[in-house]
Amino acid sequence: MCSSCCRIPVSGVVVAFGADNRIARSEDGGHRWSVVRAMKGEGTILGAVMRERRIVAVGENGLTLHSDDLGKRWQFVPAGENRPLNAVAVDARSGNLVAVGGGGWITVSSDGGERWQTRNLGVAEYVHGIVRDPASGELVAAGINRTLSRSVDGGRTWTSAVMTQLTEPGYLFQVAQEPVSQSLIVAGGKQSWLRTKDGGQHWDFETAEDGAVYQGFISHPETGTVILFGDGGLLARLEAGATKAVLLPRIVEGAWFRGAVDRRSGTLWIFGADGALARSADDGRSWERIDVPTDATFYGGIFDSARRLFLLAGSRGVILRSEDEGRTWASVDSGTVVLLGSMIEDPSSKAVLVAGASGIVLRSLDEGKIWLRSSTGSESLLRAFLVEPGSGALLLTGREGVVLRSSDHGESWDALTSNTEARLKALIADSETGNLVAYGDRIVFMERLGR
Predict the structure, then answer these.
(1) Where is the Photosynthesis system II assembly factor Ycf48/Hcf136-like domain (predicted)?
(2) pTM of the entire predicted model
(3) More confident: 148 or 7
């Protein structure tokens, strides 16, 4: 399969770039071909252009190559970012090479591809979280390749920066406010975390060359202590004001994927792979592993002692329920075997909902004892719920650009126009304007006129 092709005028030479990471060359207009270089591990070439006598090619993982002998030999030049460059062209006015890539990345070379300078980084190729910075009021997006982006206009436009203090690749998986200290916390790969209290002017941080991934974090509602959790049972405690996180004993071998806080009792919960569930009643200093009747991976849960509502959802359609504030758990028939994840309690009706794969939304009116399927009209993986400010309607995002809205407490759903088929992970809403910002493969601004 050919991903790109470059024909050299007059000479009859044609150079083709394949999706199997190969470069092929023909000297007779494409009748006979020979492979001139096999590129292993460098990425597929996605675009090429001829500049004077030089061929310049760009591709995955920030790949740039050039050849001065009609494609016989090639020199690799790093472009500075580990994200795809999709196309390259010659600026007719300046003669500069301009390459464009994932997330709006634009990089320019004024010397024929010997050196590249980023002119616009754009947002990360994949955005894992967006939150409003309590200090600046700006929206902050965290994504892959150590990228943080900021928006001062409610999500319409963004400026980005690479957090170079972190170890590469340093994917950032969660960004959230810590309400007690009014700080912004970011966590991700290479055992990295960052914290700022002044809108990003100064950052406390830690990162490790061989560190595991922090999948996320939770914070205690009274002390502000942050609990970071992740792959391989990684667990750490960061007290308010501290600049070093204390690693805690690992009580599981698999990954912790999610956390939750019981706001009435202050109990902290984490859950993840292979039926892993644990809680802490002492501000995260010590953790108790809780036995459950399944080895499914948990992706969603509700822990609310004020309502005595304790539920877990995960792979293979598993739903667990506890009637003794999480001490013991029993399986509930969900009526499905697909992956279940995000859970929410509708504030007005008190109905409990869970979303998952194959467009499924389940709804319970008796605190999780009996579950009925709601009509969504979607077959996509549905990822995250949100309560719409003002109206109280429920919103739900998913893959293939799916954004759904329910005005009847989750019983039925209507599709909103997102103008994308990208994978969407979640969304946030502006409480004043009602505008929505969805994120995942890209950031999608959805202006809600006349809502």
Answers:
(1) 17-134, 286-441
(2) 0.80
(3) 148
